Structure formats: structure tokens, C-alpha cells
Amino acid sequence: MSRVGVDDLLDALRWLALRGLIPALPADHPRALEALAAALAPVYGATFGLRHGGALRDELRRSFPTWTPTRLREAVRATWRDQVHVSLEELVLPRVGREALDRRVEVVGRGHLDAALAEGRGAVMVFLHLGQHWYLPVWCGHHGYPWNQVAAV
């Protein structure tokens, strides 16, 4: 089997394993998701790292040239943990209720949004495609705000 084939198989197995966990994941308990992410991160890093670990280390080494090898390893491990956590959050998001979402999302300047919509105008909301970036569109839906999204790179 080619190297690409092995990596694709590992990706598929990881995806199936995470999807199998969906019913058991605690949607309203972020700390439990963090603990599960910490437990799954070494497995994720070991499989995903076959393809991308070196690139991540190289990028971190270029960005932070004064980091020691130990600090670099810690950063790579933290990245795997965060990636697993974000993926788990995405999987449970459809089951997160409005109150739980309100505890996780802070919208600064909501009065401006309400005023624009009251006048029949739209509004532009800017947010990063980083971490739990999909919370904002879901939050808007829970609060009755229409949502259209444009992505730019």
C-alpha cells in the first residue's frame, strides 16, 4: 500500500472512531470534552503526525527559533490536543442548547447588531477561523439572527 493510502486509511479510521463517540459525548460539559481530548490527543498525534507532524514542527521552529526542543515538543502535543478538542466540540455542537452556547460565546457590541436589524439593514460580523469558529453562526441561529457567510483567505 502506498504512503498516501496508509495515511488515508488512518484518517478514515480516526474519523469513524470519533463519529462513534458522538452519542456518548457530553454536549453541555466542556471540561469533560477537554479531558477526552487530552486522552485522545496522543493517538491523534501519532496517526496525524505521520503526515503533518514534521511540517508543524518546522513551522513552529521557524516562528519561534529560541524554543528548546522540549518546548517545541510540548507545543506540538498541545496542538494535537487542541485539534482533537475542536473536533469534538464540532461533533457535539448540534446538541448544545442555547443557554450552554450563551456561556461559550461572547458577542461584543450586540446592541449595534440589534439596531442595524431593527432598521432593516444587515450587519457585518468579523471573526477568526480559529478554534470553535462555528459557534457564532449557531449562536446567531439560536437568537433569531439570519446568517450568511463569506470566507476570504
Order of helices and strands: HHHHHH
Number of helices: 6
Unreliable segments (pLDDT under 50, ≥5 consecutive)?
Answer: 1-6
Mean of residue pLDDT?
Answer: 78
Spatial separation of the terminal alpha carbons: 35 Å
- Helix/strand/pairing class, anyone? mainly alpha
Task: State the total count of DSSP E strands.
Answer: 0
Percentage of β-strand residues:
under 5%
**Shape, principal axes of CA atoms:** globular
Q: How would you describe what is shown here?
A:
Helix content is 66%, strand content 0%. It contains six helices and no strands.
Features of the shown structure:
6 helices; mainly alpha; 153 residues
Short description:
By secondary structure, this protein is mostly helical. The protein has 6 helices and no strands. Mean pLDDT is 78; it is low at 1-6.
Outline the fold blueprint:
Elements: H1 3-21, H2 30-63, H3 69-92, H4 98-104, H5 110-118, H6 135-142
Helix pairs in contact: 1-2, 2-3, 4-6
